[in-house]
Amino acid sequence: MIYYQVSIFSFVLLLVTDITSLIYAADQKSVDIHLEPPYQADRSSIRPSISHAQKKPKPKFAQKMHLISSCNGSYVKTNGTTCGLKEIMIGRCYEYQYMKYQLFLTNQSNVKNCTQLYQAFESAVRYKPYCNMNMSTYEKYFQLALSGVHVINRAMFWSGTYGVTHAYSADGANYITLEDTLAAAMANGLVWCGNENHTDGFDFFSCPNNCKDNRWADLAFWGLASKTFAQLAAGEIYVVLNGSHANDRPAFRNNSYFSDFELPNFRRTGEYRVTKINILLLHSPDKNVTEKCGEKSLVQLENLILAQGFQYACKDDPEELILIMCGNQWKARECQIARHVLRQAWDKKLYGTSLSKRNSHSFLLVCLTALAEIFFLVKF
Ligand code: NFD
């Protein structure tokens, strides 16, 4: 009799254990391995990356000037010119042309001389006072680096959405951003400023952030980069904007590079004219929606685009971009259901059936096995 009771008890225990493990099976599949996003948890996935030129690295001032003046191996981070500027730019140029080159350039015979390109850049800035720069300072550099390039139906612009846009453009494999062109790739994220009194001709200690008497100095490189890239874009183009900016900052704002240097420079005529501008408006997970297509600054933008004779389309949160945003912020409330649906889709891909079905099958199997065991114990 005791033996019989023990058997019943172990059956119930087995059943409860199995039900519990089956209920949590799906979740455990995804939580057993913790894949931490590569960014800080609170970083907005559509916030621009800190890696571009205008975001100056936080200065960590060196105590001794001589340590940083010549970048001679005693590297100390400053808010001056990036140590190794020349080597980085030439190295990036080689990497771009010989490793990434075949990805997207339309004219593949157009290989540039990296040393010559760097020299065009350097002669515009070395020994020159930073605040004397203007919009023509880097003309030769951009002309050399971008001659013969046209970006047809794949040019992508961004404003307030650096991270997501670049994840989506995938180094030029999907779309081509300014930063995927040779001229911008060589300089992206670097800091530099000329100094006429310094032996190196660059100031490695401190670069001015803004020149009070000459606004154009700060815009000289990225302003001309933006303008030149806009002039190379043809056919349908894409613009990724941020519809969940805090503090009522509009998705499309005056004084942005996009409004001042890109939008006014899209070609309206000729073989390489822009035909249609597609706005992709993103809303960050866990953040409030401040604007949608057809509202506020998007209306202003639509009017400007139509007035220039381009077609206009606007889409809120295309699915592929939602996936990227959720990939960066997978703990966000709006991403939870998507995670579960994706889990089911992947189970189906792996096992040919969704895990919930698999669970009910294995649940049935456990019950049958347990019943058979009881029958065996009772009988013998
Ligand atoms: P953003 P955006 N003066 O995210 N891009 O539309 C100064 F000094 O708001 C690429 O302005 O978008 N800085 C790079 C400014 C840099 C000003 C610039 C301003 N009036 C532009 N406005 C790059 N790769 O580094 C904005 N900034 C700063 C081309 C702002 O603080 C791209 O093709 C942030 O660091 C893209 O389509 C950065 O500029 C469009 O312009 C971007 O500001 C994005 O310029």
From TrEMBL:
<dbReference type="InterPro" id="IPR003193">
    <property type="entry name" value="ADP-ribosyl_cyclase"/>
</dbReference>
<dbReference type="GO" id="GO:0016740">
    <property type="term" value="F:transferase activity"/>
</dbReference>
<dbReference type="GO" id="GO:0016849">
    <property type="term" value="F:phosphorus-oxygen lyase activity"/>
</dbReference>
<keyword id="KW-0732">Signal</keyword>
<dbReference type="Pfam" id="PF02267">
    <property type="entry name" value="Rib_hydrolayse"/>
</dbReference>
<dbReference type="GO" id="GO:0005886">
    <property type="term" value="C:plasma membrane"/>
</dbReference>
<keyword id="KW-0520">NAD</keyword>
<keyword id="KW-0808">Transferase</keyword>
<comment type="similarity">
    <text>Belongs to the ADP-ribosyl cyclase family.</text>
</comment>
<keyword id="KW-1015">Disulfide bond</keyword>
<feature type="signal peptide">
    <location>
        <begin position="1"/>
        <end position="25"/>
    </location>
</feature>
<keyword id="KW-0378">Hydrolase</keyword>
<dbReference type="GO" id="GO:0061809">
    <property type="term" value="F:NAD+ nucleosidase activity, cyclic ADP-ribose generating"/>
</dbReference>
<protein>
    <recommendedName>
        <fullName>ADP-ribosyl cyclase/cyclic ADP-ribose hydrolase</fullName>
    </recommendedName>
</protein>
